[in-house]
Every structure is written in structure tokens, then in C-alpha cells.
Amino acid sequence: MSEEKKPLKPIHKYTLQDYTTIKGGKMLVKDGQPVKCHKCGPQIVPSGLSNQLVPVYEHCTTHCSRAILALENELLVYLQTCEVQGQKFPIDNAEAAPKLNLVK
Questions:
Q1: Burial level of 96, CB count in 10 A (0-12/13-18/19+)?
Q2: Residue 39 CA: distances (Å) to CA of 62, 78, 87
Q3: Taking a C-beta distance cutoff of 8 angstroms, is the pair 27, 60 a contact?
Q4: What's the pTM?
Q5: What angle do CA 11, 96, 29 make, to 5 degrees?
Q6: What is the pLDDT of residues 36-72, one digit of tens each?
Q7: Tally of CA atoms within 13 A in the half-sphere of 49 that contains its CB
Q8: Burial class (CB in 10 A: 0-12, 13-18, 19+), 78
């Protein structure tokens, strides 16, 4: 009666793109949209065009101490370790990833 469980396959496309705020940083992008950090609340800033306040969100980047780039079976993965159980995101555009130099 035991069924063999198959691993889940993500249907979203995760990529990395340059994070222009921090030199050498990369930002996690899901389906073409920057991923927002769920640990940081939005900052409310005034809009330059009107008298309104708009929320500005922090993005999930490699600058975060809880973000790790790793190789798994020759596939680049972005690890998010900000929760008790880490999240792993396979990166589709691995050529956009920074070169990983291992130092002994």
C-alpha cells in the first residue's frame, strides 16, 4: 500500500540578475519579477510625482547573510536559509551567476 513519492518539480522559472544597489550582488527573480524579502517589512516613502506614500520592498539578494549560492550536481541553486527549513531554488540562467572561487 505504500506509494513511492516523486520529488516536486518547480513550475516557476528562477533566475539571477544584477543587483545595481550593491556592486557584485545578484537578485533572485521569479518569473521575471524580483522576489521580495518576506522578513523585511516595506518602507513607506513619499512618491515624487504626487502627494502619496508608496511602499518600497527589500529584494532577496546574495548580499543577505541568509542567501547562499551553491552547486548541486552541476546545477546552480540559490539557497534561502532565513526560515527553519531552507528553501532551494534552481537557477535557470547559470551564466549570469558570479564565478564561485573556492579558497582552501
A1: middle
A2: 15, 17, 14
A3: yes
A4: 0.74
A5: 40
A6: 998 888 899 888 777 888 888 999 999 899 999 988 8
A7: 1
A8: buried
